[in-house]
């Protein structure tokens, strides 16, 4: 795959650095990963596998093409990179209007979402960010997975408990904008989006077992601890 095609597949500008290419690759890979399509149709899964293979190829092409051995070259590249990062960050903010097409399937209308999946690890927590312009189908599929994961894994830690509430509230806000969004109607011609069709609709969060089980368990634990604390005092 040549560099121009690879950049198009990753959705980055010709001036993007290796780090930006890597970030774009990781961002897209976690959204279209075939695992996300495990419960959908065969056609959708094959399409995700094809898109994922293309993405991997694009990253491989750019990764080998942009590596520059030699310290002087690298230093110069680093200096250039920091300026480019600023320019790219400004550029990213500037081109985030609401009428851009879905980054996964290329359909419109699409809306910007910025949601997180939290995993509580007793005293630590880790969060995985999903920030992208998505159509109703792709956005809802990802939103439901992220929210279900957060409701299942986000509670397990003392600080995580509080962070999780904030994360869930933040995610809910973007869930509302996805619900208000009209269904995807047409693909923008020449869109570089990796998939050719919007993602399939998945199970609603409230119809999944694990989020309920985890949330109810955590509420029960909090209630038991509170009762125990009151008894000790009384
Ligand atoms: Zn889409």
Count of alpha and pi helical runs: 7
Question: In sequence order, what are the helices and strands, one letter per element?
Answer: HHHHEEEHHEH
- Cofactors and ligands present? zinc ion
Distance between the termini: 72 Å
Instruction: Report the strand count.
Output: 4
Question: Which regions have little confidence, pLDDT < 50, spanning 5+ residues?
Answer: 67-75, 93-98
Give the radius of gyration. Answer: 21 Å
Q: Estimate the strand proportion.
A: 5-15%
In percent, how helical is the residue content? 55-70%
Task: Name the shape in a single word.
Answer: elongated
What structural category arises from helix and sheet content? mainly alpha
Walk across the major sheet and give the strand order: 1-4
Largest sheet: 2 strands, antiparallel
Whole-number average pLDDT? 84
How many distinct folded domains?
2
Pfam family, one: DnaJ
Transmembrane segments: 209-230
Protein name: J domain-containing protein
Biased composition (Basic and acidic residues): 77-91
